[in-house]
Each structure stands twice: as C-alpha cells, then as structure tokens.
C-alpha cells in the first residue's frame, strides 16, 4: 500500500526527468560547410573523424557558402546542428536580424581567412580599377560574394560596369588558366586548394589595395594583415602586401544539446591548435571578435576544458554517469526516505489517536474524583465514555497497537462500571 506507489512514482519521476528535462544527447550530428574543394569541407572531415572516436556520426552537408549555412541553421524543419561561418554574417556585419540573434551561437573562432583578389597580368591597388573586367565573386549564398558586393558597393561601382561570374574554387582557377576571367575575388584560408593553385598560375598578381584601413573602418568584420615578402615561398609575394582578412567561426543552433556543444568545442581545439600564415599556434580556437552570441559552454570549455566526468570517461559513459548521479541517485534516495518516513508518520498518527482517547479517559477519571457530582454530570461522563468506546470499536487497529487498544477498552469498561456504581449510590 505504501512502497509500491512510492516505487512507481520514483520510476515515473526518473523517466520524465531523463527524457524531458535532462535527455541524453543524440548520436548523430550534421554540419554544413561550403564547396567540397574548400577548407571548410576539409575541416569538417577532421571533425567527423574525432566525433566518430566518441561514438557520434557527423553528417557533412556541402553548401554554396556561409549565407546558405546560416539559413540551414535557422530553418524550422530539420535544422543543421553545426556550421562553419565566414565573418560578417552577424553582429560585425550588421546584417543579423535582431529577432534571430538568439537562434545561432558561436562556439569558437577557428581560423583566419584572407580576401584574395587575383588579377591577370595587371597590378591593382584600387577596386575602381575593376571597371570593365570579368570578375568572379562566387555563387549566390557564398561569403565571398557577400564581401565582394559590399566592397564594390562602397567603392560605388555599378554592377553594370562589370561582367560578374559565379565561379569559385577550382572552377575559377580553371577559368583563369583558360583566360576566361580577369579577376577572381575569394575569401579563403591560405591552405585552401583554390588559393594554392591560383598562386601557382603564371602571370597571376595579388592586388594590394590602398586605403585598407578605411575599408576595415566601414566593415568591422575585416582586419588588415601584412603578407610579408617571400611568406608563401621564396618568390611569393614579390613585395609586402596588405590583405584584408576575416575570421571563420564554428557556430551551432541555440537548442543543440549542451554536451554536444562542449564536445564540438573540444574537437575544434584539437583540429585548430596549429599555426598559420596569419596566426600563431594556440591563437585558435578563440572568442575574439565574435559574430554571434557566445554559447554558455564556450568560454568555460576553452578556458578549463571539458567537465571532470567527460575528461575521465568516454563520452557516452560520462553522460550516463552524470544522469545517474543527478537523477537516479537523488530520486532513489528520496523514494527510500519516503518509504521509511510514510509508515513512521502513519504509525505516529494512529498512536496519537489512541493517546488522545487515553487522555480523554484520564480527564474523566480526574473529574470523578470531585466530591460534589450531580446525576447530570455522571450522565455527561457516561456519554463521553460511550463516544470513546464507539470510536475505538470503529478504529481499524494495526496489529502492533492491538494490545494498547484492548487495554484501553478494558479501562473504558472499568470507568463505566465505576460510573454505574456512583449513579446507584
């Protein structure tokens, strides 16, 4: 009557907390990147290898670029869990809808990407010199296209003055090789396939834009960085060049499981710890100049690492142990305490009832010791005794109180006989 309902309630509580309040993380994640020949896709492949070591499958979804990645994170049906985003699509780019700011969170900045402007047989130091040229700025939805259109707009160059192309990556390299393009503008890290191949083409020049500081003032997501002479190899670049750069970020949808956010940050710390052309080893991952709100787990994980259980145990064992400690153990102890407390409380209630009858009987005995008692007083005492006796007969007495109830019944009978004698006196 007591233990079975308590056990059922405990099982129901554990089930509700486990499934609804503190559920286990899913075993599959998705990440949206960019083209398959880009650096984002290669980073995602490294992520997939490390996630697999923790028992999680990472589905890599190529895309046209950061704009499409952002839409995939925000969509209401089947949103993507993670994305690699180019800088300029959030706070710093002033392009983020205020109503949607809380739907995407920054886990960490993971890399530096340069705005590469490759030209054929001509040196450029101003965007105004692009007029009349065939310029590749990437497909719709790509970060390269967004940056290019923004820079051209600020330079007051009308689209009608250019022949724009959607080519990017290896397709743009092939078009430059075949003299089908004059300029290629792309945002990519130095080690990307397209940048390395473009630098190897004969007659290809890197634009060295003047007034780069003014450009970065108008575009806070961009930073000027020096590409020193001979930094790429002994011949490239032939002189110091100032390039515009932006950051690449690993972001997640807001409602992604917190444990998976922590694990994604830890994976990024493994993949992006090395140095690059524009940063030193250990500079990334970081939370400097973020484009979206920081995930609550980001700063803690970057500074202190994973929680103790996730450091000591495999990922799934850590999640299971955490739920046992936070859900199963407290609820079980509470159920055990209730199974001990409820019977004790009920016994106290029953004993209090018997003691109350004993107390009433004691008051009657004390009143009978008075010298002057009328017949009306004796009748009143008798009615009180009969009410106690009637309540005692209706009382469902447990076995361990039967002896006390029987003794109380005898005492009532003893006092009743005494009343009868006093009435006949």
TrEMBL record:
<feature type="transmembrane region" description="Helical">
    <location>
        <begin position="324"/>
        <end position="346"/>
    </location>
</feature>
<dbReference type="Pfam" id="PF16868">
    <property type="entry name" value="NMT1_3"/>
</dbReference>
<dbReference type="InterPro" id="IPR011852">
    <property type="entry name" value="TRAP_TAXI"/>
</dbReference>
<keyword id="KW-1133">Transmembrane helix</keyword>
<protein>
    <submittedName>
        <fullName>TAXI family TRAP transporter solute-binding subunit</fullName>
    </submittedName>
</protein>
<keyword id="KW-0472">Membrane</keyword>
<keyword id="KW-0812">Transmembrane</keyword>
């Amino acid at each position: 009557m007591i233990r079975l309902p308590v056990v059922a309630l405990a099982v129901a509580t554990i089930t509700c907390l486990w499934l609804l309040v503190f559920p286990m993380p899913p075993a599959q994640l998705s990440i949206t990147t960019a083209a398959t020949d880009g650096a984002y896709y290669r980073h995602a492949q490294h992520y997939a290898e490390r996630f697999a070591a923790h028992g999680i499958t990472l589905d890599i979804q190529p895309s046209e670029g950061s704009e499409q990645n952002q839409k995939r994170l925000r969509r209401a049906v089947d949103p993507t869990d993670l994305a690699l985003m180019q800088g300029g699509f959030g706070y710093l780019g002033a392009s983020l809808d205020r109503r949607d700011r809380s739907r995407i969170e920054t886990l960490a900045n993971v890399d530096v990407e340069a705005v590469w402007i490759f030209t054929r047989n001509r040196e450029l130091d101003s965007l105004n010199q692009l007029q009349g040229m065939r310029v590749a700025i990437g497909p719709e939805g790509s970060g390269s296209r967004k940056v290019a259109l923004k820079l051209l707009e600020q330079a007051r160059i009308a689209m009608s003055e250019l022949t724009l192309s959607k080519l990017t990556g290896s397709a743009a390299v092939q078009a430059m090789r075949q003299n089908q393009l004059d300029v290629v503008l792309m945002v990519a890290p130095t080690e990307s396939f397209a940048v390395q191949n473009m630098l190897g083409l004969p007659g290809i020049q890197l634009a060295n834009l003047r007034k780069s500081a003014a450009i970065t003032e108008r575009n806070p997501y961009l930073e000027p960085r020096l590409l020193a002479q001979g930094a790429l190899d002994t011949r490239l670049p032939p002189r110091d060049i100032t390039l515009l750069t932006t950051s690449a970020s690993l972001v997640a949808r807001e409602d992604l499981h917190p444990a998976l956010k922590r694990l994604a940050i830890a994976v990024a710390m493994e993949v992006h710890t090395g140095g690059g052309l524009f940063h030193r080893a250990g500079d990334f991952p970081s939370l400097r100049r973020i484009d979206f709100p920081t995930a609550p787990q980001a700063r803690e994980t970057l500074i202190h690492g994973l929680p103790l259980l996730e450091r000591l145990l495999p990922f799934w064992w850590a999640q299971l142990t955490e739920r046992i400690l936070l859900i199963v153990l407290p609820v079980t102890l509470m159920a055990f305490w209730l199974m001990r407390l409820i019977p004790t409380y009920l016994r106290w209630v029953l004993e209090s009832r018997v003691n109350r009858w004993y107390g009433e009987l004691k008051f009657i005995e004390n009143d009978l010791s008075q010298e002057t008692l009328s017949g009306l007083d004796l009748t009143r005492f008798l009615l009180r005794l009969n009410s106690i006796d009637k309540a005692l007969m209706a009382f469902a007495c447990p076995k361990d109180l039967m002896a006390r109830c029987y003794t109380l019944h005898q005492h009532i009978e003893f006092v009743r006989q005494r009343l009868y004698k006093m009435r006949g006196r």
